[in-house]
């Protein structure tokens, strides 16, 4: 939504609801065999990776901000500050007999044009890894083909990537002596609490918001129950059942925007640059 502060100032914000992802892996399997999701943010899901692959449980959320009134009023707003708020700095939950060495990745994208949401939602496995290169001029050409073009740096208002990892300081394992080894303990090889925040990276242009919409994506890549590489006998926990439950908190992104006082020609140029990768008649959302 957009809130009017004064004649030349706006607050424009977007919310992603919380998503809870639970996974279970049967003994002898290298990937999750069941995946379930819940929480208010489920209504925003474009896709969630099903059981049986290396990114099971990974998901893509989508939200759209309608700014049609700005186009109608010939308004342009330039983001000058970004505020991102979460109720928790990391996802909450636990992690049993799983993949502890690969990090979790969480992306936020605020774009002036949509990706091909039809293509994303129809994919049998949520195409989460293609988001890793999105938002720079030489980045990914995914979700393009005949329907949508590459997202340029100009069209990327703001992006953020957070990386989480599992620390042995927050884990009980057979290796660190906090869990009894088999046969005394036949149920667990490792038991971890919530991950820790490793790093935060941001990119984008904070270019002018010209409407008619902003297109917002939240992407989470996880491999909590994917034993990679899938080599028989390599993982002690392969012979044991595994499970993971992660609660990804709600996220609010707020832009403080000012009127850049563009001329009419500058406004039209900005509008064209923001939308120029959408072919006429192409499927974009």
Keywords:
8% helix; six-stranded antiparallel sheet; elongated; single chain; mainly beta; 285 residues; 3 helices; 38% strand
Task: Provide a descriptive summary of the structure in words.
- This protein has helices at residues 68-72, 117-122, 264-275, and strands at 2-6, 9-16, 19-25, 34-38, 45-48, 59-66, 78-86, 92-96, 104-111, 156-165, 171-173, 190-192, 196-203, 213-221, 242-248, 251-258.
- It has 285 residues and is mainly beta.
- It has one domain (2-275).
- Strands 4-3-15-8-12-11 form a six-stranded antiparallel β-sheet, with no helix packed on it. Strands 5-6-14-9-10-13 form a six-stranded antiparallel β-sheet. Strands 1-2-16-7 form a four-stranded antiparallel β-sheet, with no helix packed on it.
- Strand 1 and strand 2 form a beta hairpin.
- The protein starts with a strand and ends in a 10-residue tail after the last helix.
- The mean pLDDT is 87.
Care to count the β-strands? 16
Roughly how many Å apart are the termini?
Answer: 19 Å
Secondary structure category: mainly beta
Summarize the helix and strand pattern as letters: EEEEEEHEEEHEEEEEEEH
**Average pLDDT, all residues:** 87
Count of runs of 4 or more consecutive helical residues: 3
Rg, Cα atoms, Å: 21 Å
Spatial strand sequence of the major β-sheet: 4-3-15-8-12-11
* Count of domains: 1
Largest sheet, in brief, is: 6 strands, antiparallel
